[in-house]
Amino acid sequence: MSDPLPTSATIGILGGGQLGRMLSVAAARLGLRTHVFEPGAAPPAGDVTHKLTTAPYEDVDALAAFARSVDVVTYEFENIPTAALDVIEALAPIRPGREALRISQDRLTEKTWLEALGLSVAPFANVTDHASLEDAVQRIGTPSILKTRRFGYDGKGQWRLTTPADAAAACADMAGAPAVLEGFVDFSHEVSVIAARSPAGEVACFDPGENLHEDGILRRTTVPARLTPSQRTDAVLMAAKILNALDYVGVLGAELFVTSSGLVVNEIAPRVHNSGHWTQNGCAVDQFEQHIRAVAGWPLGDGARHSDVVMENLIGDDMDHVLELARETNTALHLYGKTVTKPGRKMGHVNRITPARSN
Amino acid sequence: MSDPLPTSATIGILGGGQLGRMLSVAAARLGLRTHVFEPGAAPPAGDVTHKLTTAPYEDVDALAAFARSVDVVTYEFENIPTAALDVIEALAPIRPGREALRISQDRLTEKTWLEALGLSVAPFANVTDHASLEDAVQRIGTPSILKTRRFGYDGKGQWRLTTPADAAAACADMAGAPAVLEGFVDFSHEVSVIAARSPAGEVACFDPGENLHEDGILRRTTVPARLTPSQRTDAVLMAAKILNALDYVGVLGAELFVTSSGLVVNEIAPRVHNSGHWTQNGCAVDQFEQHIRAVAGWPLGDGARHSDVVMENLIGDDMDHVLELARETNTALHLYGKTVTKPGRKMGHVNRITPARSN
Predict the structure, then answer these.
(1) Hey, what domains does chain A have and what are their CATH numbers?
(2) A305 contacts on B by Cβ (under 8 Å)
């Protein structure tokens, strides 16, 4: 598949959360239909998709029917079971490709791969049991952070080791899950680059954003980020290197630590990324549409920034203040339609823009 | 109903065309669900709605089930059969209200009402048959234009009278449909005001846009419009006067002729309007979200313009150039997902923005 999909085509999306929801809206804006596959009931993307399949990732028949009904499959999260991908790949192209998923599904694989590519990452060591954790702590020291190799997000599956004595408790908590120990990086702040690559190898990057996390969850992204011109260039070149090495198609988010000795890759995500939500109100073409364009084989769009933006996540009972937020000037509200509010749950976000023009 | 709808609420939308489609996306952005009622198969709004009912406006059971499933009903077009509105209104509030529909469904009623409100309209006369047409031509003169009182859009149902001798043929073509004869207005250009009013009576206007029509169809809207400061103020005051007189809730589009002796109302539409599509890429809150906010009893949003915009409709085989348009810088593409292209059919639009900032 290399020709651009016609506007009557259907994009399959694995995962019906807020990212799938905003991808679906972006596809519609290009005249494309979407079919969302999601195990959970009443998913956010279900409100804005042409078709929704509710089935577990183990349901081979449902996966096959889904794959047959679409022209290309993409996804909103990287932890899709490999067996499900095998079923789909026999029937429809998957974009971004399997290699990006294989690498980003496992922290150890990802860090090893990034290092081999010549990029800086935090010091890390493989942890399989108590003995290898003791070795790792000796080599990397504390403070450091123990992370499960798979299925971590929003700070889940992570244990902070302040002293070597914390190792035993962390190891017990992990209950034998394969892990990596990461050394702390002395960074001033974190930025992320949202970059896209088309099937033809065209690459486009949005302006880097500066991220602030609270309790392991992204709280705020500010654009522009504090970066020198050469750091900005480095960030874009690093992202392009990753995309090209993967022969990547779609949008990828790369989180980078800014240190006195250069940029260090924290992690990469083979999908649209929370830290790219600002593009919805800062650019003519946002990260969701850019992803759909790439996946559909369309030309990448113009991601130039027309306004400065501060994106702030609405988490848990931040939702109590929605009507106040709705009254703010220069503020765009984006809610995900989740019916149940829980502490730590991302319910929406606001983009506060600073237009150069004032009317 | 005066409290703001909670984010779990459902907005019913009558009509599943492109306006319904973009209203549905805007509702989702606020976390609201939509249920679209549309007689035609595979409507554009069907790709982005939580629920779609496919039934004719004469299906009382379907209308009642639709009305019962939603918290409020709005619409994308004004020519909804009165009997259908009666069924719905017994079960759910309709916003904007019936009075706005009654007036805008009939050109004669609309012009009479606007004139009684103290606003300028083109000279007009009621036409019921050949004799009254002859009278009207004598009074209003030629060139003038004969329009059916109901169901006209995009230049349909209109006959241009260059000389009095054209009256006979126009009358025959109309086949007895009630009509109005409108005198030509000597105007320099047409602008439109997209204005919103909340249930609490709060009014907000977007910056006026300047419209260019071709073959009776809107081709382009340019913002800002060529208006003096006092014309701009007049335009906003006229729109506010109309909204307040109707105790209106929602967005209304008013087309105004700019003449040397002031602004003349061409027509009003009790809904989001093609000439307001530029707001999608020029403002933090666009006309679709503004309409949903009003209809849901939410605070009106900030419609200040952050960029200049030229909106251009994609009509018929303009669609052949979609991939070229997708490559343009500072250009946002909005396609409607219509599977059949026909001459004169609106298939999408582009918003070309001029950001004050250049990166």
Answers:
(1) 10-94 (3.40.50.20), 123-183 (3.30.1490.20), 189-355 (3.30.470.20)
(2) 357, 359
